[in-house]
Amino acid sequence: MMKSSRNRKRKLDATILRTATNYLLPLLLMFSLFVLLRGHYLSGGGFVGGLIASIAFVLHSFAYNTKRTLRLFSIPPLMLIPIGLVISFVSSFLPVLLGESFLTGVWFADSVAVIGSVGTALFFDIGVYLVVIGVVLTILFTISETVQ
Amino acid sequence: MLTLIFLTFVLAFAILLLKDFVQTKFVALISLLPFSIFVYFLIYLTKIKDGVTSLVYTSDWVPSLGISLDFKFDGLSVLFGLLISGIGTLVYLYAISYLRGHPLLHRFLCYLTLFMGAMLGVVTSDNLITLFVFWELTSISSFFLIGFNNEEEESRKSAMWAFSITGFGGFFLLSFAIIVGSITGTYSISELLSQSDLLKESPYYILLISFLFIAAFTKSAQFPFHFWLPGAMKAPTPVSAYLHSATMVKAGVFLIARFTPILGGEVYWNNTLLLVGGATMVFGAFHSVFRKDMKGILAYSTISALGVLMFLLGIGTKTAMYAVAVFIVAHALYKATFFLVTGIVDHALHSRDISTIRGLRHQFPILSIVVMVAALSCAGIPFTFGFIGKELIYETGLLLTNQVYAYVLTGALLFTNVFLTASGFLIGIKPFFGSFDKLKRIYHRPDLYLLVPTIVLSLLTIVFGVFPLFIYNELILSTFSALYGAVVELPLKIWHGINTSLLLSGCSIVLGTVVYVIFSKWNNSLAVMDRFNQLSPKVIISFFVEKFRQFAYRYTFMFHSSYLRSYLAVIIVFFIGLVGYKLFSDVPLRVNTTGLSAFRVYELVVFLIAVIAVIFAINTSSRLSAIAATGVVGYCICLIFVFYGAPDLGMTQFAIDTLTTVLFVLVLFKLPPFLRFSDRKLQIRDAIISISFGTLIAIITLQALVSPADKDISRFYADNAYVLAKGKNVVNVILVDFRGFDTLIETIVLSIAAMGVFSMLKYKDDEELEK
Hints:
Chain B: This is DUF4040 domain-containing protein. The complex is a heterodimer of chains A (148) and B (771). By secondary structure, chain A is mainly alpha-helical. Chain A is built from six helices and two strands. The radius of gyration of chain A is 18 Å and the shape is elongated. In chain A, 43% of the residues are buried. Helices cover 74% and strands 1% of the residues of chain B. The interface between A and B is large, with 55 and 48 residues.
């Protein structure tokens, strides 16, 4: 990665990295989702998942450039932050509507295949996942845009 | 009540969305909100009438801390509730016409509604902490109202002063609440009533009442904190009429009145109130007649009236409490009228200078009658409500058993009333009599919205003055019993026969007229006062504020060198000093190496890699390789996490390390070329700092291993992760469930950081682009 950024400076070809990235990006994103979902039973969770997803996009931006990576998003990464916060907050507030106290875990009776039992904790974690992606990408891309 | 206050707040923000609606003529409908609250309180009035009965509604807020949203209806809270909502209704109507066409009218109404909700909360709360919250909300919303003309510097400054002084008092209210809570174990004001002795005998009694006094005196503009009130007159006139005559400034009086049955009756309590209230009423009344600006006169006479109320509470006798209840109503009625009329005059002539305004009687006949009634009520002429108030005030002074006291206190009251009468005449008579200056232009004639509120207030002044029984039975009696703690009948009479208090009333009217004549002729009176400006509390407090600011500036400058390296050094040295001191002075050092497992080969390898990377990072002459080397150290630590069974931590650390390295690389190109910033000396200093820091952390870690830790919490998490939260990964269950609240707040912190970076860099970027 560091090599490539240097290379980009010298306008050297980054074909290998680019080709690899084209496959790695979806793979890493899927992996990040996998880490997110397995979190409740095995190592992983929203925070790590979000970080891995961010790394995937950062890798893409190294292989190409930040503008091109941003084009992959239909909304700016900054918008992921409020979305994530809202999801987290709604999932913590949901139990209040059901007569429980704030942030109590509420679960569906039946568990879903692959994912396991679905409850507010999962949505809470998804919110964290989105916030982390939003935060990391906003900080990194803003800095990299300013630098260029 | 909770629903009502909640609704008020919701509506306040809803008004913000109705930007266009508030410019239409239907906006007057908004005054239905305070009006319906007024009716609501009227209904309660019949429920609590005569007697100490009070209705308490409870609902929990934070039960574990004893904080609840309890609301209490007794005479005192209903009296204030009626004032707030009643005068509120009139002020809304008035403000809509006064600020018609103002582009920010919707904001104004939002602040006003917020203020009303907060104020209703203050007077009905039955929980100390809730009371504090509403108390602060009134300060905050009044900040926005005073600074409403935010393009004028004076206006912003006044808002700051008002906010700093009242906010300063707010801290003391909180401290008071906490001390009361720790002594009695409850925050509920109703429960405190039965714990009065416990509080009075507590060694903290003096401290307690000092805190309460500071809170009340700052809010009610008592000497020496009074100066924010004249400044706050920069607010639009409806705000002055609402906040600075009838409601907010009386919150301090309310607070003292509320706690009189609980903490009052002691020598310190009464004497402090007598001294401060007395000084304020004499000072304010004397100052008011020197002013030429109508609002200035009103500001000082309001300060004086608040002083009178504190003074009466300090006397604390039965008659005094009656006088308080009556005078609150009488003052609110005539003072609000004065303010509203001042607003109309200001609106009409674009001037409030009484030395130039004359003969308005010919232009505004109705208005002159209305303001005349208010002036007469202020002077205490019979058949106005003010007369009854004044009689009671004198009676309070005369009924004191101690002769010396009676003479001194009655004398002070007489002096105050003479000057208050004069200042009332300066507002209510001087601008309206004489011949109208033909050269003056009338900009706006008052419409019905402006006139009706003043007419209503004056009518009430007369109705209550002629038929005092009209409000005696319900309102005055129940307020009195809430203040005094018992029901004692003391009927209000218009005519007491010829006695000393009537004589004193007559005296104050005659002398007041004399003072009025002197000061209405004396055009240069303000200059005399200005000479004493150097000694005024405002100048003295400003001096300290300025010194404090300078100190803060120097202090900040010392630590904010804008070098990352010195920030880090300061933080780490401070940490070493603090933790090191605690560790070596308090904890017996025991390092037990027997329990540690032996080095395994791969651990040794990882350790060696890390050591080599560190040495490389220190000695390299290229930034990029230094960053890469620190990345290697980070990865080594991840591996150690993985070896010792913390895969979650390892994964996260791994990702974070990668991203940090990327971040470094990104900013790398922005940095100046690699130079040797530090000489030998600095390097040695840094080496000492970092080595001691590392050693300290290592010692703490070893120490932690041998300390008997309380395993209850971790065992609880391990046992219940699956049972309660259906998760097998304890770390994640803690993050999203057991300690979910922390995570929620951490995500918010992260978001703020991201927005900070975004706005800082983007803003700078755009600025540079413009250049």
